[in-house]
TrEMBL record:
GO molecular function, one term: lyase activity
Protein name: Putative hydro-lyase CHM34_14215
InterPro entries for this protein: D-Glu_cyclase, Putative_hydro-lyase, UPF0317
Family: Belongs to the D-glutamate cyclase family.
Lineage, opening ranks: Bacteria, Bacillati, Bacillota, Bacilli, Bacillales
Primary enzyme class: lyase
Domain of life where this protein originates: Bacteria
HAMAP family linked to this entry: Hydro_lyase
Species of provenance: Paludifilum halophilum
Keywords: Lyase
Transmembrane region(s): none
Length: 251
């Protein structure tokens, strides 16, 4: 599907699955929505943690339209799935958030690694979760983010297994795209960042890691959801992991 077809399918509820592989060439984004009074603290958190939270846009309070990255879109309707958090607890997953919208809501769009996956594929590097029609596996690490105001918590990473011959090329490709997490933060040693079992991701689906393949880990925009659990904001809405907002900007 092209971008307009994806937008129609998502808004109508026809597409409620992960967005990996959709609309190649366009920036995909993670979403965080908070009350205005918490927005400065979270903005500062993003500035201090640019690997997991690379800012693409911050909206005006109460405005659901991302005027910079997708002026024809509506953040209340144009993601396949959303998660609603209250006091740090995930309480509901929904396909639109019109009923939850607030006049003081400030939306943050953060770059997503799904954006660079088409570049890996174009470079002859397989992307396993796309091959297996699964959501990307994501893991909480024991690495702390730099705190800001009320927000603190662990780094979350996404994982893609790579053949050793593809590793350097994958690092080269992704390092050119800091707006969507850039180069990996860890390669080859999950336990070094607190991951003990690749078959049990904290978010998404486990994928096959073939003998001889090397797990590579990228900073992930699900980090704010782990931070929400740790920091317990009274109200927060995010994308459901893997279910991204697709902007109208080219990568």
């Amino acid at each position: 599907m092209n971008l307009s077809e994806v937008r129609r399918a998502v808004r109508s509820g026809e597409w409620t699955r992960p967005t990996a592989g959709l609309a190649p060439g366009y920036l995909q984004a993670n979403l965080v929505i908070l009350p205005k009074r918490m927005a400065y603290d979270f903005l500062l958190f993003c500035v201090r943690n640019p690997k997991p939270c690379p800012l693409l846009e911050v909206t005006d309070p109460g405005c659901p339209v991302p005027k910079k990255t997708a002026p024809g879109a509506d953040l209340r309707l144009d993601l396949p799935r959303y998660r609603v958090y209250r006091n740090g607890e995930w309480v509901e997953e929904v396909t639109d958030i019109e009923a939850y919208w607030r006049e003081d809501a400030v939306s943050f769009l953060l770059g997503c690694s799904f954006t660079f996956e088409s570049l890996l594929i174009e470079g002859g590097i397989p992307v396993r979760h796309i091959e297996e029609n699964k959501n990307v596996p994501m893991y909480r690490t024991h690495l702390p983010c730099k705190p800001a105001g009320m927000f603190a918590g662990p780094l979350v990473v996404s994982m893609r297994p790579l053949k050793s011959k593809d590793l350097i090329r994958a690092v080269e490709i992704t390092s050119r795209h800091p707006r969507v997490h850039g180069a990996p933060v860890q390669v080859g040693d999950p336990e070094a960042i607190g991951i003990t079992d690749l078959d049990r991701p904290d978010y998404g689906d486990a994928v096959t890691v073939h003998p001889g393949e090397i797990p590579a880990f990228w900073a992930c925009g699900v980090t704010p959801q782990a931070v929400a659990v740790a920091s317990r904001p009274e109200w927060m809405i995010t994308h459901s992991p893997g279910h991204m907002f697709i902007t109208e900007r080219r990568r």
